[in-house]
Amino acid sequence: MKITILNSSQTSAALDGYINTLVNLLESKGHEVQNLLLREMNLRSCRGCFHCWVKTPGYCVLKDDSDLLDRTVISSDFVLWASPMVLGFPNEFFKRALDKHLPLLLPNMEIAEGEMHHVARYPHYPRIGMLVEKERATDEEDVRILTDIFARTALNFKTRLEFLATTQEAPEQISEQILHPQEGSHLYQKSLKGMPFTTIQPPHSITVFNGSPRGEKGSNTLILLNEFTRSFEGNIQLLHLWNGKDMENHVKAFQSAECVWLGFPLYTDCMPSIVTRFIDALQPLLKRSINPPIGFLVQSGFAESLHSRYVERYLEKLARRLGSPYLGTIVKGGGEGIHVMPPQANRKLFQNLQHLGASFKSNGKLDERVLSQIAKPERIPTLIIPPVKKAMRIPLFNSYFDGQLQKNGAYEKRFDRPFLEER
What is the pTM of this model? Predict the structure, then answer.
């Protein structure tokens, strides 16, 4: 068996020792094991350009170790995701690597498990397991949240998360789970709903963090944040997280904020690595007795909002960890094309966001009715799944990406599998 470990240990610490023991166990049983130390790899953060779909199909356009990473993963029989936890989540090294797997899929959509998902580029995807090193504050709720999120990620990568274990379990147990496939249903909970949120004194000002890797250009997240905060005009501090060099200023801005709103696109079922980096940088603020109230905006290219409900659980728990009153999460599906649409095409959406922001400014609380309107559809109604499947076979359905492929002279290569190896 060919086994790959994505090791996101930040230093040569306890996790490295654990993984070394695990590697020795697996190799002693005759298996080929590759331990990729992510901290030693040159992996630049995914910038959401989609060139891996429409310009260089199957390859990341950034000149880093993405090709090595994706070739190794897609040619494996089993991949173990391994990371220490920081504020209840795997660290930025891990998330950066996961985001770079986008070329392993096609931009086209299909219905799977009654939901929209991307189409497979390759005929085979590895089995997946996950190993995390707990923090002192890690509890069963954290483990449940991570299991949900990364079981969803595995589903999107055309495979299944077979287990999520911690380093409190013996390496021998992890070895057995890797070597013996575990059949069954996906491990995530079904039918999650929005989380309850709090009311604060109506804020005078708002500090907004744009977590889109696209920054200020072509960012659907930024458009939605601007509409939501329109009523705060003149009292908005807007910061863009794509520029990691400003991290110290970003943390200071968070500390001094009256209230915070953090928006980002859904990347592999959670936040982009640049947002993970920002959250990791907030760890010293745990020492403060209270931090500013915080709310979130999560938008995704999937039509249904349910895809974002899993990271919403993490965001609510993050607010509790920080001692920040949780203001709620605005969830919007079908957001990818907003930046290329004329404003009138999104008039109703923008009106709802403006109303939601004005209501929050006046009352210190999100309007639940409007929040629900923005989130529709939560899922695809069962009755319309058959006609949706038929519609997805019509060329017009894929015209958004097909048009870009044709423009870039890459249409004939759209189904390329550059890392395919004979198995």
Answer: 0.96
CA atoms within 13 A on the CB side of 344: 0
DSSP class per residue in 268-328: TTB--HHHHHHHHHTGGGGGSS----EEEEEE-SSSSGGGGHHHHHHHHHHHHHHTPPEEE
**Containing H/E element for 403?**
helix 399-407
Q: Which of 86, 67, 97 is nearest to 5 (CA)?
A: 97
CA 358 to chain centre: 28
Residue at token pair 């939605």:
224
Q: How far apart are CA 319 and CA 341, in angstroms?
A: 34
Nearest alpha-carbon partner for 201 in 288, 241, 251, 259 = 259
Question: Average model confidence (pLDDT) for the chain?
Answer: 95
Contact 359, 338 (CB under 8 A): no
Summarize pLDDT for 28-62 with one digit per residue, the tens: 999 999 999 999 999 999 999 999 999 999 999 99
Question: Is 137 within 8 Å of 83 (Cβ atoms)?
Answer: no
The dihedral built from the CA positions of residue 314, 93, 212 and 158, taken in this order, carries a sign that is: negative
* 410 alpha carbon, distance to own chain's centre: 27
Asked if 401 contacts 54 with a C-beta cutoff of 8 angstroms, the reply is: yes
**Cβ neighbours of residue 315 closer than 8 Å, sequence gap 6 or more:** 296, 298, 326, 329
Residue entry with tokens 């695809």: 380
Phi, psi of 101 (to 5 degrees): -85, 0
Beta strand 161-166 with 236-240: parallel, antiparallel or unpaired? unpaired
Fill in the DSSP letter of residue 241: T
Please tell me whether residue 259 adopts helix, strand or coil conformation.
coil
